């Protein structure tokens, strides 16, 4: 990933929607964050990663809505979405046509002692996403929380917080086990999500993803993938999937905004077949203009 542009947003801006006054471009090599910022010292903030193709952010509205939902769950003042939208469209244009890019939108609680959230947005060019083509080896790992965690608001289930140290540790554990990625399972035995992706499983003509109500992130790419599958006449379904049902699926993939659909080629060491629709799905996801 190569950062091509960084913008800092003025958190006090409200409704003006004026890019010049409220958004400042900064040199990506220069420090801009205070050492007192709660995003850095406590992971106390929220973020979004948005795919970019041909200078346009993909599924931007879904990402902005989720940013606002995540902020509300953390009691961070509501972001001015019009400003974030304008900044995102501007930043995405810095990614050259014909290459894939990403926007990272970050909103933190701000510096200790201040009531002002910190917001910034970085645009990057992303490298070849070989896993989309070659597939991934996945292990299931216990997330150590039951689906009842979804009912405990202080656990922030469903918020995309900056606190990803556990997710990154799970990915390192996968590597130690000779795999590339993880499917988290709840302590009461339900399939949750990947550390940075949603789980999408095919059972015959049914495409199933775990219901976000069990305390996982509502995936924007999974939602787009459902659109792709239902356009092809397949049934799509949000449901509770028990871990022992996963090996019985016909195909599995992990989907997210930049890697898109990564087909699972082995699950806990057992080889898996890849859905022939994976490649057309990825072409369709990459070709989205909105
Ligand atoms: N679940 C988690 C925990 C994630 O971090 C992500 C993306 O980073 C996703 C699901 C997939 O979300 P999206 O498709 O909106 O990128």
Gist?
By secondary structure, this protein is of the alpha+beta class.
Alpha carbon gap, first and last residue: 22 Å
Task: Categorize the overall geometry.
Answer: globular
Q: State the total count of DSSP E strands.
A: 14
Percent strand:
25-35%
Instruction: Name the hetero compounds present.
Output: pyridoxal-5'-phosphate
Describe the structure.
By secondary structure, the protein is of the alpha+beta class. Helices cover 25% and strands 29% of the residues. The protein contains 8 helices and 14 strands. Strands 7, 8, 9, 10, 11, 12, 13 and 14 form an 8-stranded mixed β-sheet that branches. A 6-stranded antiparallel β-sheet has the order 2-1-6-5-3-4. Strand 9 and strand 10 form a beta hairpin. The longest helix is centred in the N-terminal third of the chain and has 14 residues. The chain is globular. The two termini are 22 Å apart. The relative contact order is 0.15. The mean pLDDT is 95.
Secondary-structure blueprint of this entry?
Layout: E1 2-9, H1 19-22, E2 23-26, H2 38-42, E3 45-53, E4 56-57, H3 60-73, H4 81-92, E5 100-108, E6 118-125, H5 130-134, E7 136-142, H6 165-176, E8 181-185, E9 198-203, E10 206-210, H7 220-231, E11 235-239, E12 251-256, E13 260-267, E14 270-271, H8 278-286
Parallel strand pairs: 7-8, 7-13, 10-11
Antiparallel strand pairs: 1-2, 1-6, 3-4, 3-5, 5-6, 9-10, 9-12, 12-13, 13-14
The chain binds pyridoxal-5'-phosphate.
Pyridoxal-5'-phosphate is lined by residues 49, 193, 196-198, 217, 219-222, 255-257.
């Amino acid at each position: 990933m190569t950062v091509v542009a960084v913008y800092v947003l003025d958190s006090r801006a409200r409704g003006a929607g004026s890019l010049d006054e409220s958004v400042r471009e900064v040199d990506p090599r220069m420090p801009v964050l205070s050492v007192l910022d709660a995003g850095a010292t406590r992971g106390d903030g929220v973020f979004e990663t948005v795919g970019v193709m041909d200078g346009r952010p993909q599924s931007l509205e879904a990402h902005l809505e989720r940013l606002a939902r995540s902020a509300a769950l953390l009691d961070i003042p509501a972001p001015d979405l019009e400003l974030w939208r304008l900044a995102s469209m501007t930043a995405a244009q810095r990614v050259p046509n014909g290459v894939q890019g990403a926007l990272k939108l970050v909103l933190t609680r701000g510096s200790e002692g201040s009531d002002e959230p910190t917001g910034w947005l970085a645009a990057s060019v992303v490298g070849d996403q070989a896993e989309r083509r070659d597939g991934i080896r996945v292990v299931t790992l216990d997330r150590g929380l039951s689906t009842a965690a979804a009912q405990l608001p202080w656990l922030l289930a469903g918020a995309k917080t900056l606190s990803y140290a556990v997710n990154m540790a799970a990915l390192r554990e996968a590597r130690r086990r000779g795999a590339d990625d993880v499917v988290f399972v709840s302590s009461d035995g339900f399939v949750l999500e990947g550390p940075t992706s949603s789980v999408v499983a095919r059972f015959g003509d049914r495409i199933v993803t775990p219901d976000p109500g069990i305390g996982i992130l509502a995936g924007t790419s999974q939602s787009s993938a459902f659109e792709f599958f239902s356009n092809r006449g397949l049934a799509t379904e949000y449901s509770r999937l028990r871990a022992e049902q996963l090996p019985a699926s016909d195909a599995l993939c992990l989907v997210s905004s930049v890697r898109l659909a990564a087909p699972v080629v082995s699950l806990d060491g057992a080889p898996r077949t890849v859905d022939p629709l994976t490649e057309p799905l990825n072409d369709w996801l990459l070709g989205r203009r909105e």
